[in-house]
Specification:
Length: 381
Amino acid sequence: MKLKLRYFNYIVTILLLLNGIVFSDVDTRLAFVSNTPNTPSTGKGTLILDVEAISNAGAVQINSFQNALVLNQTFRNQNPVVSYSAQQFPEPNYTTTQSYNGGNGKISLIYTYFGGGRGTIQTSYTQILRISIVYDMGNATGSVDWSSGGPHFYVTDNADNVITGAEEPVTSPLTDITLPVELSAFSAQAAEGKVVLSWATQSEVNNLGFEVYRAQEEAGNYTMIASYESNAALQGAGNSNEEIEYQYEDASIYPGATFWYQIADVDFAGVRTFHGPIQAEALEALPTAYALRNNYPNPFNPSTTIRFEVPANVNDRMEIVVYNALGMKLKTLVSGRVEAGVHEVVWDGTNQQGVQMASGVYFIRMLAGKFNKVHKMILLK
């Protein structure tokens, strides 16, 4: 009996092939798109992934498609908010379920044909859905995987034939997702013949080290100028819950030029997370005398920048103070000893108590040793 049954199945298969009938299978996969820190706001990260499917035997119209994936416990502790876009099976043609269960971390996807045009899965990978997950950044590594619970992976064609294939294994960028920690500081300071970059981390997760990139425009082409692979000072701490400070000196600059810098931390999987950019203007030389430059913009609203210069080999205490038109002191912007170089300070139009000033004429005064200079500023609302 078994031999006759096998023989019968073999004959049926031959007849179907001779008549050009091939039943499709549909496979599915999760595709990593991006993982961006400090997006959409500081302290938040955004993971984007696609659910994709492929038919092995020509384009196939779909009556039902359902599947589920799951965020691990670490990931769902980061308060994920899940949203969906680029749907292949939208309402009203399909009744649609797209839901996230914070208790078990499950993202459920169920699409059932209702009427009108049917969605189609092609012989190359078709995007079924784009999933965006906004999470709290932190000292953690999470993961995404196929869910073993319902709804199970299930696909039918327009004749309700079951054409469920296989779920491809999830790729490493989704099974080991770094939920990065924002740098607690990142600054650039121009000095004579160099720019000094300084940054600090509050904690690190699987951090191999840092790379330093530089460009001459904010939106320009950034070139890597230093790496943890060749500079021991840029090597990361791996995993740490302590604040760690880093510094890099860029001496390959030329005077008077403006540079933009980014740094990238590189994790154990080789994934880079970029920070910045920040700007630094290389000094032509250390100033030889005190100077107070005109503020810019002027007139201004709501804030203006004041540039001042401090020469080398001095140790004077200095003050930069804002006065109103009556000569009354409103706010002290700088007080104390300042290192040699070109510096900038911003006045936001408020007094010492944080009260916003009205439109009018104001004065900025710099005192340092025997140096005494005043400029007029106009706040125009």
